[in-house]
Amino acid sequence: MKRILIIEDDPYIAELQRDYFGLHNMEAEIVHDGREGLELALGGGFDLLILDLQLPGVNGFDICKQVRERLDIPVLIVSAKNEEVEKIRGFGLGADDFVTKPFSPSELVARAKAHLARYDRFTKNRATERKADPDVLRIRELTVHKAAYRVFVRDREVSLTTKEFEVLLFLAEHPNRVFSKEELFERIWGLESSGEIATVTVHISRIREKIEEDPANPQFIGTVWGAGYRFTV
């Protein structure tokens, strides 16, 4: 049974979420305080995090950042804040989805199940591929170990999230071709995803910060204005 941690200061909303997850055979635990929620989340044992932004103790953005640095589980933000800048910030900190209040509980559960299934597939694929010799992709100072899901720049390992790795690998395997944000979103997140296309821009920016010597003047992932992004070998 999947275990969900709900960090939400509104008791009615939190209990509504828990009830709907329960109807779908998922166990949900509720925490109303951000500091307590962060401690519980980092302690492990949960398969997915439902996170409000306006919380006492520690705000949702800080929780998202710290959880993403330590854990590889889906993080879904559920917030009354619906400005684009808030969504972009959430995605930039590693959130997998952003649901705006008021929301449909059934849709929230459907999104959670989709993200859980995607993470499960990724984990199984990684375990399977690690049994074989890893395929290594070398492009100048960049080395991508596809089977081991590791990336090195000038022999220094850099840490990428699941989605950052998928975006980088896809572009590196299709060099010198321009992909629009819409194409990348479809290829990486899938047609069934209910996320925001703006997350593509955020992920590209974060990848550049980690692999480029000068992110403002990228040598690997370039922007083709008005068209999209291109990986240069």
TrEMBL record:
GO molecular function annotations of the record: phosphorelay response regulator activity; transcription cis-regulatory region binding
SUPFAM superfamilies hit by this protein: C-terminal effector domain of the bipartite response regulators, CheY-like
Coiled coil ranges: none
Major localization class: cytoplasm
Pfam families linked: Response_reg, Trans_reg_C
Keywords: DNA-binding, Phosphoprotein, Transcription, Transcription regulation, Two-component regulatory system
Localization terms from the record: Cytoplasm
CDD domains linked to this entry: REC_OmpR, trans_reg_C
Residues of the OmpR/PhoB-type domain: 134-233
Annotated DNA-binding residue span(s): 134-233
Any GO CC annotation of this UniProt entry: protein-DNA complex
GO BP annotations, alphabetical order: regulation of DNA-templated transcription
InterPro entries according to UniProt: CheY-like_superfamily, OmpR/PhoB-type_DNA-bd, Sig_transdc_resp-reg_C-effctor, Sig_transdc_resp-reg_receiver, WalR-like, WH-like_DNA-bd_sf
The protein's name: DNA-binding response regulator
